[in-house]
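pasting for the record
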Amino acid sequence: MRASAFDLSSLFASTLPPPAAKWNGAARYNFTGGHNDPDMVPVEALRQAADSVLAREGQSLATYNVGHGPLGYLPLREFIAEKLKRDAGIECSADEVLLVSGSLQALDLVNGVFCERGDTVIYEEDCYQGSINRMTRMGVNIVGIPLDEGGMKMDALATALADLKARGVRPKFIYTIPTVQNPTGTIMSEARRRELLALSQEYGVPLFEDDCYADLIWSGKRPPALYAMRNGDGVVYIGSFSKSVAPALRVGYIVAKWNVLSRALALKTDAGSASLEQMLLAEFCKSQFEQHVPKLRAALRAKLETLMESLNEQFGTAAEFSDAPGGIFLWVKLPGQVDAMQLYQKALAAGVAINPGPEWSVNTAHSRSHIRLCFANLPHEDIRAGVALLAEVCRNEFGVPARSANIQKQV
């Protein structure tokens, strides 16, 4: 007689998150995630870079970190240091750059350096889902600060910091995406950055600056990084090549002073992030990055225009949004009767994937009727068709929009 199956579930750790859903393929119209434009992946240039660097240095793959030490492949770290000085005003050496497996590993490492269960951190009220989930799983308390068209509101931050201090709570850090914020797309002005730095100094709370989208500002001009404005004192900075080159390469980085970087490095016990991707990127970036990014920006800007036009046509005034100054997302406010979580489920069943606002906010009531739409991956015709189908689902479920904007214009 065959023995019964071994019950592993009784041995699972009690702190596990809910199980992941089985993947059954992408939705026909996928407006989720941080995917990029497939037509703008520089495939031929990357192939040539891989051929060149492997022919020259391929035998170094026989050692972990290809002999460049635990911080990662030196030519890529040198490129990052040069790029950050030119673009963001950051003065750092290659030895202040730690290469990691995408910005999510950067988040894990920085969180691990600073946070323990029961600690408190300050976040932008609407914020990156991946960062929120990590804090929740660690048992860290999040204090959300409202945003306006200029990013995190400094009066609200000052009030929160004063309240926490009165209660004897010193937050471990203020996490912010000041340049093309995710999901709202806002860019914090230099003046407001100075206010943020002053509050950080006054209350002794460091800043955690996530700068993954700064390469995708349509104008190509950005304010200086917070890290640059304080020369790294009390600021930890992370970036990524996922949005500027390709997400699947999974290469990100942390920039920090050695007293922080050494602690992050001690937590990074993975024997080093994949070196081949680092070598390929270094080879590509030294000759192609500056030519590639403006082309990518132009392609993404055109797709954003298609998305905004489609929303106006299909939803009319029922969809509220601001023209994003860069990035790959549009943060959309629908009327109050729309439950974004319910809309997400119904739309997905119909073949349209969206990010419901409550998953991108530390205040789910505030974001109940918001949705985040990634416009980068789909071709223009699919953006139009996907928005039309989303409007149909929304109308059937919530009566919004009551009639399409096209019909309204004909009346």
